[in-house]
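Record type: monomer structure entry
Structure origin: computed from sequence
Chain ID: A
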Amino acid sequence: MPTEEVAFPSFWNVEDNDMTQNRFAEIPYLPGARRSFLALCLLLLTVLPVAGQTPQDVRPVVGRNVVHTVKQGESMFTIAQRYGLAVDHLAFANGFSPVTVEIDPGEVLIVPKERILPKNPPANGLVLNLPERGLYFFRNGKFDRFIPVSIGDEKGFQTPTGQYHIIERIKDPTWYPPSWAKEKGPIGPGPKNPLGTHWIGLSLTRTGIHGTNQPLNIGNSVTHGCIRAYPEAVKKLFADVKVGWPVRIEYETAKLGKSQDGSLKLVTFPDVYKKSDPEVALRKLLGGELPQGLAPLVAMDLGVTMGLRRERPLGLEIKERAILR
């Protein structure tokens, strides 16, 4: 989705590239082992965030965070759709309650477009990170796009993790309500069908990726196990995927990544199913304690990538750590 160029207020430091020094200095010619040893030392300097810590599982970072100044008539929903995100992504990133929809003109928002890729992705297929509420689509060995989704409700309908695959693609599906549903008969194509216009069935029983007739709920944990996305996103995905392609569902509340400039980035997500404390997961990745000053931001589970070596500002500490407003 095209986006306009945005002027970045200096205090926002949205890209958050705190490690500005180019650590990939040209290595002079040295004979054999000495040159290899120096190259190794320079490589280690690019990934060690704090003395004594050894980060694990550092992955590529794609995209970049931007800022958006709210205009008259815009809402969290319309802004989220414009940037290919869910309302929850914007709300978490800016310290709002996830039920926030209305927002005042002139408000400056961080838009979390920067993503840390999943580990060992398929050449063709999908990876869903449940706490992130997002599908990563890979095609021809490359990351293609990020798709915001809703996942299973945490109170009895949690979407399970595991390795699955696509078993069917159905246009204009009929919904057959399960025994617990209030509806008591098949619902054919149309505005009352909760599956929307496209169904991508998985090898996980009665579970698939589909559209919705309630797009405002995308990004929430509200389904009965299925994976919902915006109708237009599912329509496009439906045309791009094939039966047999893998779909991995995982649960990562913390990630580490490295940008093209060599700077380390971290991100944490809310522990929606209470399976993996984000701070504990991040400490494990870092091999020790959190860098000084990061703990309060990590505790907010913003879903925004940020540099490990920072003093401020990242949106003035997410507007002075305004968790609920």
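Annotation 1: The radius of gyration is 21 Å.
Annotation 2: Confidence is low (pLDDT under 50) at residues 1-54, 320-325.
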